[in-house]
Amino acid sequence: MKAARHNDDCREMVEFALRMARGNDADALLVMLEAPTDWEKLKKVVGKYDLMVASDDAENVLGAADAGLRTVVLDRKYDLVHEKLSQTLLESVADDLLAPGAQVVAVYSGFEAGKLDSVSLIHLDEHLRRLTARDLRQLETRVPLDTLKTVVDLAVEIGREGREGKRVGTMFVVGDARKVLAHSRPTGFDPVKGYRRKDRNLSDARVREGIKEVAQIDGAFIVAADGTIEAASRYIDAPAEGLTLSKGLGTRHWAAASISRATNAVAVTVSESAGTVRIFQNGEVMLRVEPFRLPMKWREFEFEPPKDKKDQKDKKDRKDKKDKED
What we know:
seven-stranded mixed β-sheet, 326 residues, disordered N terminus, alpha/beta, Pyruvate Kinase, Chain: A, domain 1, YojJ-like (1, five-stranded mixed β-sheet
């Protein structure tokens, strides 16, 4: 097959990515291809830097291995580009092409098909802890994938960020909202009560930020299939007989397991102790994602204010005198 022309735009993007990789001491450079290319010209651009190529079409990487390049072939032609990128990294780790803690600079077509126009620096120890849409598709549920992905992403952010430097534990119960409400009761103040449905929908970034602020309250958030928060601060009251969970999981996880078995809902928990997110269905943990590191909390500056106005005046006089001497 005739190789695609290695045009100036492609070369410039790869050269920029190479500078980023060297500047950040990345372990590898990954190029996601949508068409064949000239391997020798590509190798000439990157020199001896560790280069990987990937594509969802095997014909696009023909000859790459013979040229000494590490290759990954996907079967994800109709997936979104970021899902393809995530799967490439997962398979690279599984095939020992990359270490789980590696840093990778990726070049890919993020905006215009067939044109390398995007560069990302990816820390695998963080990136691989995110759940992709493909992971969630294994759940046999009537909850729309978009809603479930939104809730899981929000839970991961809460597990990672916490609030005011402290970890936060909470729970979301998604889908089959009417039955879930019947298996729950209020624990106290409901921060979403009285708002219009559109002002309670998680598709709105402002609503998600608001939920983060009130995630510390006791009880669960009940989320409808369309992403609307139906109620908050709910005590889950579903039978737990016959359930088996790993040792060390607390009442929040037992409640999640019980409600996911008693209804057709999917329960998503955030562990207060470690920030771990677990997804329950039919009384079992189906998926688990570890949080990123919590952000560093800077110590407050300590200072001693002037005792009175006289001290302030003396200080100003000394400064003025010094300025005149200089």
